[in-house]
Amino acid sequence: MKAYKAFPSPPDVAGPFEEKYTAWRHRSRWDATLVWRVCHRLDPRPGDTLVDVGCGTGYLCSALERTGVVCVGVDRSPAGTRVLAGRGGSVVLGDMLRLPFADDSFQFAVSSHVLEYTKDPVALFTEVRRVLRPGGRAYVLVSRQPERVILPLRPVVRHFDRVGQRQAHLDVDELMAASREAGLEPIATGTGGHLITFAAAAIHRVTTLVSRDLADRLLCSMLTLDDRLARWAGGGVDAWAVLRRPPEGCQDADCIR
Description:
The protein is an alpha/beta fold. It has a single domain, classed as Vaccinia Virus protein VP39 (Rossmann fold), CATH 3.40.50.150. The chain has a 7-stranded mixed beta sheet, sandwiched between helices. Helix 5 packs across helix 7.
């Protein structure tokens, strides 16, 4: 696996929340839902390269690397990147709006709940486009405005808005507009994160103690149901999009893989 140089960290955006949040992410199984969604939406395969923009403690990279995907995390949190580095993962301490990678470096990119912390989503999408190869794809997940979320889950969104010092929310239409302005093509969009997602994360954590295979099968079934519910009812806490960098004359699958 390629070694990446560590870059100096920019000013921390999370403040005193960072250490508590990092400890929670390190203990929780919540990110298991993200792993399923990334595999379902992007289908990265062994040997493919993926950058996790705003990787936190690196749960996604750790999970994908076990499947043979070459995953590199980047985050501006020293506490979070220390956790991933301690597990032997590839991680860079850096700024998501100035990604420390060369152009055309990755086949895939993921940005989960990062856009809430920037006032310029177009700038982040522009960087994602730059580091993707022509034809490469990105999966982006962001919290929606509380008033668009079903009533039982609005306190969850407002809680993380408050303690996490979120700067903004985006919905599907805003994700599409910002990504297009940055030169990315939306190829799939939707909402998710209903009550089923929260139940799935809790059940996965418990059943993992008994059988990891059983836990993963239950997670897959529950999140598939959550996706169907989101298409039918709306009101989930998250908006998501799969974006593509235009192929720019590519003739075959080598543009992506």
